[in-house]
Amino acid sequence: METIQTQKLEVVNRTKKEAIEAIKTLREFMPSNQIQAIANAMRREEKQFFFNKVCELAEMIKNMPKTYEQDGKGRKAIAYLHYFRGNMDWYITEKDKGSPEDHRQVQAFGLADLEYGAELGYISIVELLENQIEMDMYFAPTALENIKER
What's the domain count of the chain? Predict the structure, then answer.
């Protein structure tokens, strides 16, 4: 008889201090209205979920590929972030390297679908944030080939 072992995923509960530090990273990638909603939720009974979620997102952003690191992968490139508004979607595969002097996030590379067909190219993170385009906090990194099939 075959035995199946189940893996227990250890959930590490992050602290409020860690979550506040994570939000500093997220400010370069998440619109201010969404940051404010999360900050409010971090004061309520679901606060531990949001502490953990913002830390998870910040860690993913810190470790995601920089410009050209997925070059040549085509549809196999992994999208790490998803932004949306209505029927429009932006999937970020690489973040801008930025200059050593200026660490601000300005643009990224990915797939944009503005209801006229999806296209790969540079995406202005600044414009997404200025227009309060929401980041999908529950998006799991996935290959572009899987996104286009949706």
Answer: 2
